[in-house]
Specification:
7 domains, Beta-Lactamase, flat
């Protein structure tokens, strides 16, 4: 399991390399199913599969764990005969495994899964040597892919760590802004220049890279070869210190203390120099550089919280600064000034490690030391510290002193703990806030255009608002029709780093979102953080507010109009917190109130008392409602004026609320609407009179409408007859030619028989049959156009049908057309008339050939297709699963106007005489009648794809069988009787002779009434064979339905040249009823009769 998890493959998205290897394995062995399976603790998971349709299988029923125990692979010719698998649910149930072969997949020398091939039929011979070799080779390829993936991941990890270390080193150098840190190669060409060097020396990094390091020395020092002497001293001693004047970019000089050190690679080889400078101009100019330095050192000791120590390695004496007491509580009298005392205060668990590491630097010619450990405080507790030291040596390399500083990390550790708490708090907040938060990675195509994005992280709020857990998923997996706007917006943020803040409607979620997006992490990773809120409710509230404001504006306009017309009675203002109600002078006079009292404020009860008793309850409800919700107010009611009469008025106003929802004020106006109400009453009276007149008018309109509907129906019939006329004109010539061939061949046949010349008889029979079959084909095309041809749907394997037609298509299209047939493995069956499907496919191929007069490529392809609600709606289909047959050419293509008319009857782009224009309309009628659809995808000069969609059939496809000849047709059993009803004597005679030839007892009738008489008698009738169109007022379907009243199990075979909707139920028959379309071969009739009688007696 550890080896599997280290691959990082489990539950990863599909990858094309593995999918290709799986398909190749299936093709090499010749099976419909293959997979790359990885075996985890509790399940078998498919990294890639074809034909299986599932990726997760419980481990206890999986085959792969057994395969992993077989180094050379496992072959199960027939799982039902293998005791290990015979009762396995994968064998006894779906997918019904019979044959299985697998080879273990290895990682780090351990099996982690298997490459397997599967079939639902047994392979008794197992695998031949070529197949075994190929399967092992492909398994080795998969294992190599897994190893390569792990190696690349490890390489990326190491590279990332190295890049982070380089960045950290660079940040460290750049953070030392008070120090000029310069690196140079062995030739003293500058290779590094930190921010401190820019600040102190004035040159930018880009100006100095590759320049001689001597440029920072004064001309006098350069002449005296001071840079070279310093370099030699550094090579000799390991470092070289100096204090001297140096040169800035602007030509000014500054006094700097500097040190040059050697740079070495991992192997210790000398690779260059590192020079560190610090501006000491002020100290130098003060003339007391050493004293100033000591003073600053003492001040630094007092200012810092670091415990600074000076260890004399010769005497083992140690001196500490005041911080040892301040930070750790050790008073000077408690401290022994020795290295032994210092080591004794280190935590026992850390002591040996620290002692080893510090002496490794001292004894190993090192200079710098650093270590973290626990140091005991005076109160006995331990403080986590970071201790750093620098070893000072004599010219011979002998260690003399070690100076260092001990930093108390307690505060830092506390801060780190606080940071962890803060991070956990932030994470908790993100998980519990209503706002949705997600980290997404944007995917770009080869043209750097955003095409998808994956949800790397998402909080619970995101899942609540989206309604689905999207972590680790690509957005197109659940919203394939998501608007392009989202990809472009997020892609722009990921590429440019510009923030985005917008509101947009997501049709896939049917909601409004307020979205904020910002790029995070490495820009190359194209990752952004998104925070969004569902603002659908707010948008609705805003819409309602806009409506309310529009109402308020309308009220203002009404007030303005009323002012202009003198309709305003007066105004009021109600201060809701104090309940002070004031009115203007006009209001007071109208209602008989004292104007002075109106200005000071009057009780609202005094105003309500003037309202008509019947209107007081409604007024109170309206006032309470507007105070509760705020906004505009309008209400009509009756009031008693000073003259004692009641008048209709309308009160208009608005209630304003504070930010906390407290009602504040209620100003408004009162309008006189008495006259308007009178006008409205008059309008209602006139409306009632008009309504009475309208009722009789509607009766007259209804009569005229009925006449119009009848006229339209007559027009449609006229148009249909015109279409039939066009069809007759287009096909009459062909029918005359075919009839001439049939009549001539039959006449010559009769002459030769009369003459006794039997030698050439077969030639004339063949000629007559050929002409008759071509006439039948034209009839089929006519019926498909009119959608009156009855389909004979059967469960059909479309791959087998297309494969069987491949040679015919190649011969029909000619040598200039390259034909390619691509059949999808595991294609679903479909319920369709196979003969009509063959005709439709051949017609499409002929059209494709005609679109490529100079030659080209024709591709026939099958596929399983699932259409969701939106996709089905665009294609005028029901959602669900379909089998798609596509015919694609590289020809001239179609313009949009041609595509729009392509399915119209008689529409053709071919020259006169080369097409009737019925081909595509026939195919369209066939597809729709079969529950499917036809779609065209084409552009001028870019070729055309014609795609036929047929519904998936949930069952097994029929296996095509050749019709037996009449001589070999199955014979009747004793006592089997067939009733033949047909008004055409010739047809009746032929059917009777076929039945007698096969040994059936046959009864004949010339019309529906005669046939029904026989059927209602006591005669044994095993099968009714009848024409649909019969004379005498009773057709074949009516006769069959009447007969089934007394013979409910009666089998019926309709023989017909067409089928009316009223007879066969819009192209679909009742159980036990079948159709054989005229013309038909006698052997086909014989086979169908035997099939129906056999099913009846079974």
């Amino acid at each position: 399991m550890a080896a599997l998890h280290r691959t990082g493959l489990l539950d990863t998205p599909p990858e094309q390399a593995y999918e290709d290897l799986v398909r190749l394995a299936a093709d090499l062995v010749g099976v419909p199913m293959a997979a790359v399976h990885l075996v985890a603790e509790d399940r078998q998971w498919g990294k890639a599969e074809v034909g299986l349709g599932t990726r997760d299988i419980p481990r206890d029923i999986a085959f792969c764990p057994t395969t992993m125990l077989e180094p050379d692979g496992l072959v199960v010719p027939d799982a039902t005969k293998d005791p290990r698998f015979a009762n396995n649910p994968l064998v006894t149930g779906g997918p019904g495994i019979r044959f299985y072969a697998g080879v273990p997949l290895m990682s780090e020398g351990l099996p982690i899964g298997a490459l397997c091939v599967i079939d639902t039929v047994p392979h008794e011979a197992g695998l031949d040597e070529r197949q075994r070799f190929a399967l092992r080779a492909l398994a080795a390829q998969v294992s190599s892919q897994i190893a390569l993936r792990r190696a690349l991941a490890e390489r990326d990890r190491v590279t990332a760590e190295r890049d982070r270390a380089d960045a950290l080193r660079r940040q460290t150098l750049d953070s030392a802004t008070d120090f000029a840190i310069i690196s140079a190669d062995l030739g003293r060409k500058i290779t590094g220049w930190n921010v401190g060097a820019v600040n102190i020396l004035g040159w930018a990094e880009a100006e100095m890279l590759g320049q001689p390091a001597d440029l920072i020395f004064t001309p006098e020092d350069q002449t005296a070869e001071v840079p070279e002497l310093e370099r030699r001293r550094a090579v000799r001693d390991g470092r070289a210190s100096d204090e001297r004047w140096h040169l800035r970019k602007d030509g000014t000089c500054f006094w700097a203390s500097g040190e040059m050190m050697l740079l070495r690679d991992e192997d210790g080889a000398h690779t260059g120099y590192l020079k560190v400078l610090r501006d000491r101009t002020e100290q130098h100019l003060a003339g007391e550089a050493l004293e100033a330095l000591n003073e600053r050192y003492r001040l630094a000791q007092r200012a810092t919280r670091d415990a600074i120590w000076d260890w004399n390695l010769q005497t083992n004496g140690v001196r500490w600064n005041e911080a040892l007491q301040e930070a750790y509580g050790w008073a000077p009298g408690q401290v022994e000034p020795t290295g032994d005392w210092w080591i004794a205060q280190i935590h026992p668990e850390d002591r040996a490690r620290v002692d080893r590491s510090i002496h490794a630097v001292i004894d190993g010619n090192g200079t710098s030391w650093s270590e973290e450990y626990r140091f005991r405080r005076a109160d006995g507790t331990y403080a986590p510290v970071l201790d750093r030291g620098y070893v000072m040596r004599a010219g011979t390399g002998r260690p003399l002193r070690m100076i260092g500083a001990m930093l108390d990390l307690s505060g830092m550790r506390t801060a780190e703990a606080a940071l962890r708490v803060s991070e956990e708090r932030s994470r908790s907040i993100l998980e519990n806030v209503d706002a949705a938060f997600a980290i997404v990675q944007v995917k770009f195509d080869a043209n750097d255009e955003p095409v998808d994005y994956r949800f790397v992280e998402a909080n619970a709020g995101f899942e609540r608002q989206a309604g689905v857990d999207l972590r680790g998923k690509w957005v197109t997996e659940f919203a394939p029709d998501l608007e392009r706007f989202w990809f472009e917006t997020y892609g722009h943020v990921a590429k440019t780093g510009e923030r985005a803040n917008f509101e947009s409607y997501a049709e896939a979620f049917e909601r409004w979102f307020d979205v904020r997006a910002v790029r995070v992490g490495n820009p190359a990773e194209r990752t952004i953080a998104i925070i969004f809120n569902d603002v659908t409710a707010r948008r609705g509230a805003e819409e309602r507010l806009r409506a309310s404001e529009a109402l308020a504006r309308a009220n203002v306009e009404r007030v303005q109009l009323a002012l202009a017309a003198g309709a305003i009675i007066g105004t009021w203002h109600w201060d809701l917190p104090t309940d002070r109600f004031t009115v203007d002078e006009a209001f007071a006079h109208t209602f008989g109130l004292d104007p002075a009292l109106g200005r000071e404020g009057i009780p609202l009860a005094g105003i309500v008392a003037t309202v008509h008793p019947d209107d007081q309850a409604g007024l109170a409800a309206a006032i309470n409602e507007v105070i509760a919700r705020g906004g505009a107010y309008a209400h009509q009611y009756r009031v008693q004026r000073a003259d004692g009469r009641y008048y209709w008025i309308e009160a208009n106003g608005r209630v304003d609320h504070a930010t906390d929802g407290t009602p504040l004020s209620f100003p408004g106006v009162v309008l006189d609407v008495e006259e308007r109400r009178a006008i409205e009453a008059e309008r209602d009276r006139v409306t009632a009179e008009l309504r009475a007149l309208t009722e009789t008018l509607e009766q007259r309109v209804a009569a005229r409408t009925a006449d119009l509907v009848l006229a339209e129906e007559q027009l449609r019939q006229s148009q249909k007859m015109e279409a039939v006329g066009q069809l007759t004109g287009g096909l009459a010539h062909d029918f005359n030619n075919l009839l001439t061939g049939i009549i001539g061949a039959l006449e010559l046949l009769g002459t030769r028989i009369a003459q006794g010349r039997m030698k050439d008889v077969d030639r004339y029979v063949t000629a007559a049959q050929g002409a008759a079959k071509r006439a039948a084909a034209l009839t089929h095309r006519l019926l498909a156009f009119s959608r009156q041809q009855t389909l004979d749907p059967r469960p059909t394997d479309v791959n087998r049908l297309v494969s069987g037609m491949e040679e015919l298509i190649r011969r029909t299209t000619g040598p200039a057309i390259e034909v390619e047939v691509v059949g999808t493995a595991g294609l679903w069956p479909t319920l369709v008339d196979p003969n009509q499907l063959e005709n439709a496919l051949l017609n499409l191929c002929i059209n494709a050939r005609d679109a490529m007069p100079g030659g080209g490529r024709l591709t026939v392809e099958t596929a399983n297709t699932w259409l969701n609600d939106r996709s089905a709606r665009e294609r005028d289909m029901e959602p669900g699963q379909y089998v798609a047959i596509s015919v694609t050419d590289t020809g001239t293509g179609m313009s949009p106007d041609v595509i729009a008319r392509a399915f119209d009857p008689f529409f053709t782009t071919k020259p006169l005489g080369q097409g009737t224009g019925l081909g595509l309309s026939m195919i369209y009628g066939f597809a729709r009648q079969s529950g499917g659809q036809v779609r065209i995808y084409s552009e001028l000069d870019q070729g055309t794809t014609m795609r036929v969609y047929l519904p998936r059939y949930y069952g097994t496809a029929d296996v095509a069988e050749d019709l037996p000849s009449l001589d070999g047709a199955p014979r009747a059993e004793a006592g089997q009787t067939v009733l033949v009803v047909d008004d055409e004597p010739t047809v009746r005679m032929l059917v009777m002779e076929v039945l007698e030839e096969l040994g059936y007892a046959a009864i004949e009738a010339g019309d529906g009434a005669s046939g029904l008489t026989v059927l209602q008698s006591d005669a044994q009738i095993d099968l009714l064979v009848t024409d649909v169109g019969l004379p005498g007022g009773m057709n074949g379907r009516q006769m069959a339905d009447a007969a089934r009243v007394t013979r409910p199990e009666l089998k019926v075979l309709f023989i017909t040249g067409y089928a009316e909707n009223a007879v066969v139920g819009n192209g679909h028959l009742e159980p036990g009823m079948h159709v054989l379309t005229k013309p038909f071969a006698m052997e086909a009739l014989a086979s169908r009769i035997k099939e129906l009688i056999g099913s009846a007696t079974a």
